[in-house]
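Researcher: Good morning. I'm working through a list of sequences from a screen, and I'd like to move beyond sequence-only analysis. For each chain I'm collecting a predicted structure so we can compare shapes side by side. This is the next one on the list. No need for commentary yet; just the structure.
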Amino acid sequence: MKLFYILLGAAVKGRNVEQHDVFFGIAPKLKDLVPYIKDFWPEAGSELHLDAYQEVKFADGYEIRIVEKERGKTENHLFFINLGGYRAGFFDEFHERHLMVGKKMSEIIKRAKQTEFYKTMGFAGAVSHIDDKYGVDIDDISKVNDLLPQEMKEKYAIVLEKSDAVNQVNVMKVKYLKIDKI
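Model: Good morning. Structure tokens for this chain:
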């Protein structure tokens, strides 16, 4: 089984610009996630597409393994962080997303504030922030396990093992891909 991290997009009816969201799922192949993705964002209808995706094999110096729930015990967790920030002269909010490993959200927040993005995106009156809820707060970062569809949460565990592998890169595919063409 593999952990997939997907950036979804859709030109949702009634909206003026394309909307985006992220989806995490566990399956042997990307195609196996299509019904879960459609359930995740039903309002997108036929406009639903992938803008980017990756199989997450490594994060933050750890190897990612997916095991059946009964066998999966770990003191560390895989966290998803969505940073938001602004640049003077740009009519936009920019984002940078991270997968980080740690024991507690407070530890991850501290590390997220040390990223280059957090330190450099923003200006007086428009500072960078950890997005999605209420500014920088421990609620703004999610354990990836908590973002999985319920069926996957109940069946699988994400196990993180410290890795000294030289090439800890997750191959990323960045391309427009209609959901029904996967």
